[in-house]
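User: Please predict the structure of the protein below. I'd like the answer in structure-token form so I can feed it into my own downstream comparison script.

Assistant: Understood. Taking the following sequence of 371 residues as input:
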Amino acid sequence: MSAELHIRASRFTAFPADEYDRYVTAHSAAIPYHRSAWLQATEKAYGHTGWVITAHYNEILCGVLPLVEVKPPIGTRSLVTLPFCDLGGALADNADIRERLIAKARTLAKTNRIKILEIREGGSVLNADKDRPGKQNKQSADALPGSTKVRMLCDLPESSEALFKSYKPKLRSQIRKAEKNGLRAELRTETDAVDVFYEVFAQNMRRLGSPVHSLHWFRELKSAYGDHMLIGVVFQADKPVGAGIVLLGGKEACIPWASTLEEFNPLAPNMLLYWTLISHVCDLGYTRFDFGRSTLDEGTYRFKKQWGAQPYELIWKEYRSGKLDLPIKNSSSSGASVAFQLRPLIENIWRRLPLSFANWLGPKLRRYITL
């Protein structure tokens, strides 16, 4: 009997997580978000149904595509790979299997009457250095709209010592400035550190005028990722003034969340926070650091670029009722509408909310915002 390729759609809770994670761990393109821990936390914290599209050749796993079904109380259901982060997408042994996985996801959406399927994947590096030789074969970031979102990635050397030497004098001075200002940083892996992180994070999100994730979400992430989730905290005396979370997977580390308290920013806690986390994962042997999504040439983009990060494409595709829409360019003008125009007003109102109320209301909204 000839061997056949089988593509299957399974509820996340029905598919063996160990088999899934073994495949993800061995795949060269895997990122921390691909781990089953992300699906587990999403389902336990927010009740969103997790799905796994899998490919099997002679009953051997040869491709996976993680998905989350998001069903808001008002609006349209969607299947996303993956929500609450920049990307997920398919991992497969070859391009044909990858396309078969996506086709099966489209079938799943149609069968379950889910109108929107969103595939978030990463692309190639963009040329962000003007007039630099040897870059002619790369798309230029300068040719893209200023509102384009990119993924900022930095290759790490063999040690934190080599990394520190690679930085410009100004950056090294800023890192030392935080220490001279009396700040100290700690790396924590225990569950209680989540609450310390959240104390800083929630205050900063209210300041930014944005609904905050629930504390339960971060606790479930910690439970699911275990030692593959690191928490960095910066203190002035005994007060936490900065905090960030790093997730580990394959040879890559990513930092999906980092915050500082605004009144302490002149002391440079963010510089010490990032250095503490980046240097640690570098010494652990991770070879790439994902600084997350940024808008071209804005403040966070320039902040990440000074650490050596380079912009990479983010390719988000949306299928509506089975048909591919125009690619989502990941710009702030995507889906521009009345909601986008009202954003400054909404943010100003949110900033005025009492912190306790913002922390109560925010998660009820944030669980349905898949960005």
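That's the full token string. Residues 221 and 283 are 24 Å apart (CA to CA).
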